[in-house]
Specification:
Layout: H1 2-6, E1 11-18, E2 21-28, H2 32-38, H3 43-53, E3 57-63, E4 65-73
Antiparallel strand pairs: 1-2, 2-4, 3-4
Length: 75
């Protein structure tokens, strides 16, 4: 999705364990105007639904690109 929709040049993926939690962050430097078009689709809603199914919190941030944060209790 980053390559297809955001036209990003760089993507950073961070996976970490913070105490009893697993965290994942995916950040890119994509075009915000292009990303806004993506928000009108089902992708974000599908990610929210899937996060809820596994008991995770998910947040989306648009700033100088796009970031997705996911946090859940470790298994």
């Amino acid at each position: 999705n980053v390559a297809k929709h955001a036209q990003a040049n760089q993507v950073n993926i961070r996976l970490s364990q913070q105490g009893r939690f697993f965290e994942m962050e995916i950040a890119d430097d994509g075009q915000i105007s292009t990303i806004s078009k993506v928000n009108s689709g089902n992708g974000i809603q599908n990610m929210k639904m899937r996060a809820k199914r596994i008991g995770a919190e998910i947040h989306f941030v648009q700033d100088a690109g796009y970031r997705v944060f996911l946090r859940m209790k470790r298994l």
